[in-house]
Amino acid sequence: MITKDKIDEYIDKIPPTPKALKDTLSLLNDGQLIKASKIAQTDLALSKYLKNLVNKPIYGFSHEVKDISQIFGILGVSGSQQTVYNYMTTLLSPAKWLLFGLNTKSFHELQARLSKRWELILKHLDIEDKNLISSITILPASIIVSEALFSQKVEDVKLLRSTKNLDYNTILTRLCGMGLFDICEQITIKWEMPKEIGELIQASSGLKPSCDEQINLLAKWMHLLLFYELSQPIFVEAGLNDFVDFQVDFVSDIYDDFAKLMEIG
Amino acid sequence: MRAVVKNGVGVFTPQGFLDGNSSSSFLSIDDIEATAALEVDMILVSLKRVIFFNKNGLDIFMKLFSKVRQKNHATVGFCDYDEKKYRAINVFYQDKMYFSLYKTIEIAYLFSSSFQNQNKNVLLYSEDRSQRSAMAIELHDNGHNPIIAQTSQEFKEKSSNKDAYDAIADLTYLGQMGQKIATRVTGNAIIYSISSYLDAEISNKFNIQYHNNSLNVGFRLFVFDAYKVISMNVHALNFFSKLASSAAEYNASICFVGMDFEKTTETFKDTLEDAGILFYEQMDDILKNKELLQELGASSAANTKIKRVINKQTVTELPRFIDATVVTIEMMTNSKAIKQSAEVQAITIKDKTDKIASSIGYYGDLDGMVILVFPKGIAKKACELLIGENTDDVELILDTLAELVNIVGGKIKTLLSDQNISVDITLPRTYNDVDSLLEVIQDRKGVQVELSFNDDKFLFFLTR
Q1: Are B16 and A227 in contact (CB < 8 Å)?
Q2: How many CA atoms lie within 13 A of B129 on its CB side?
Q3: Residue B147: what pLDDT?
Q4: Of B21, B49, B411, Cβ closest to residue A248
Q5: What is the ipTM of this complex?
Q6: What pLDDT sits at residue B211?
Q7: For an interface test with B, which of A229, A230, A242 has the most B Cβ atoms less than 10 Å from its Cβ?
Q8: Which residues contact B70 (CB under 8 A, 6 or more apart)?
Q9: CB A175 to CB B385 under 8 A?
Q10: How sure is the predictor about B35, in pLDDT bands with cuts at 50, 70 and 90?
Q11: pLDDT tier at B73 (50, 70, 90 boundaries)?
Q12: B16 inside 8 A of chain A by CB
């Protein structure tokens, strides 16, 4: 169905970080928000994405924010970096979704929800590391990878999954020895993202816990956040709820804290 | 969301958070009806991967359950939960629990009337005495050996010796059970348990698809355990008369055991006897009488006088049957499956050692049966994607082989429908040795194809 060669081919085809984005990220890394916003403006697609994203209700602005330098100013260094990484992830997304019932708008909605709630979690945990704030942006790449690899096999996958409750990550791992989260880690390497982002994404599968205590703790929050969002009607209806297995035991020790933070009653 | 159907149980597995807002997205009436249309005995929602639920969330499932129960008579409820979730559901619904709760899906299978793995020793306990009895009766009707713990202390003591039981059923609650007729297989006879008042509802409660499947795969003796029947009306009489007529086409026997005609007119008995149904007082009158068993057709699972041959249409569509198998094996193993030879002949298996098999029937515009025979080790490799672990557990391998042949059947259905040929597939059947397979197909002719993947050979046989 899917072979290791196909996965390698997919990883090979992932484009490197475009120059404008690389420069923007580099300037953000140096804390130069204004310069970064000027570079970002030169990429029209990025500018459009930034405007769409930050004007979503979850960002909570009462007036439409249009100016890129204003957006960067509001988001700050870490928020801007996170948003640029979110944009990079969208570069991988398909023009038309076949496996999942998503479209550009709903995918951006998922990115926005994950990003804002992740910020809330890190604030709760007193973590200000901008790389860790950005790490959430790679999580939706697992959905894009599933779509890319399985969309040509929709009927086979349906038949298989009507017989056995197998998620895409398990199917891929059993067939190729490489799962969705391994591929996401490869993407972070290709995009020269900080190492801890790859480690955190890998651990957030709930299947390969990290030796680093902090990464492991964050992985639990990330895993639970993902399923909190994938339980929302829009994403359940898109067929995302069971695209990977939810590891209930993995997150059980942080659940009460999470429920309190998200005001789940 | 789609259900996974196995052993007559359709299971939905939502993940994450179930509340009044999300539950209706997880399950729609269409999802439930599509599952019910597969003639399942039970429709369950697994709570294994649910971390949060509230009453509003479950209420939405309740409404759907209620609709499906009224229409399809299937048992409905939840499974795969821990004690905390079990207690929460009890608090939510208290005395209004018409649905069932099964601690695990494996326990639910024991209560499914289509579960073929009978004779399990099941330790059971419930705080509610009437529940203990109800569970014991259901398990017994399904061909298991229930062992009831009368107190929690007794349960604690007995359950500490896990090896003494095949299953331990606690934190389980039987709500309104599905009214599907329990089915069990004893040797080469199929026993259906019927009870109470038999009326027009019998045609809804009886799994005719399963029955036809059994006829197709060679069963010839069907016994209705009717000890608990109070009476029957003319609609039930007509149903059994029709069933007897269709059984006659296959040279099969239908017997009633323990039927008391105190509240049913004796003329019904005459009518049923005229239709070919036989009456016995005790089950052992049949099952312990070898000569009678032979006479009734249960000495062999395929004592058929009508041998049907492979017809032209089947031969024309043969490439699609082989394609379905090849594509499935390729999908499951990521390796190229190769057709090596094809012959029209009676099935020939030179070396019977360590081989297992699985079959699936299809019926509709075309009818017949596909059989796959594998060396045990090769079956394991073919099923690696489904098994996911290294195992020598033959029951698990057979179970998975049934899943594989079910996928082949699904693929056959799709490929034939592309040619405007409409077929339905039966439930898969497995054979843990070649002799039990040969007992079913005997000397029927068919198309035998040697196939291989990664140089591992297996056999495909298509017959009618």
Answers
A1: yes
A2: 1
A3: 95
A4: B49
A5: 0.89
A6: 84
A7: A242
A8: none
A9: yes
A10: confident
A11: confident
A12: yes
Structure tokens at B316: 């024309």
Q: For residue B437, what pLDDT band results from cuts at 50, 70 and 90?
A: confident
Enumerate the domain spans of chain A.
Answer: 4-16+98-261, 19-90
Region B66-90: what's the mean pLDDT? Answer: 89
Nearest CA in chain A to B330: A1
Provide DSSP, B27-95. --HHHHHHHHTTT-SEEEEE-TTEEEE-HHHHHHHHHHHHHHHHHH--EEEEES--HHHHHHHHHHHGG
Which pLDDT band, with edges at 50, 70 and 90, does B256 fall under? very high
> What are B145's strand-pairing partners?
B121
Q: Cβ of B31 under 8 Å from any chain A Cβ?
A: no
Average pLDDT over residues A132-146: 93
Q: B388 touching A, CB under 8 A?
A: yes
Strand-pairing partners, residue B232, are B198
Residue at token pair 């009766």 = B137
Q: What is the spatial distance between Cα B178 and Cα B138, in angstroms, rounded to a whole number? A: 11
> Tens of pLDDT along B285-321?
988 888 888 788 765 555 444 556 677 888 888 889 9
Query: Is A162 in Cβ contact with B4 (below 8 Å)?
Result: yes
Residues on chain A touching B5 (C-beta within 8 angstroms): 162
On whether the CB atoms of residues B179 and B192 are closer than 8 A, the answer is no
- Select the residue from A153, A234, A246 to test the B interface by mutation, using most B Cβ atoms within 10 A: A246
Interface test with B, best of A159, A171, A173 (most B CBs within 10 A): A159
Residues from chain B contacting residue A246 (CB–CB below 8 Å): 15-16, 49, 51
Question: How many C-alpha atoms does B139 have within 13 Å on its Cβ side?
Answer: 28
Domains of chain B: 4-169 (3.30.750.24), 182-296 (3.30.750.24), 312-463 (3.40.1550.10)
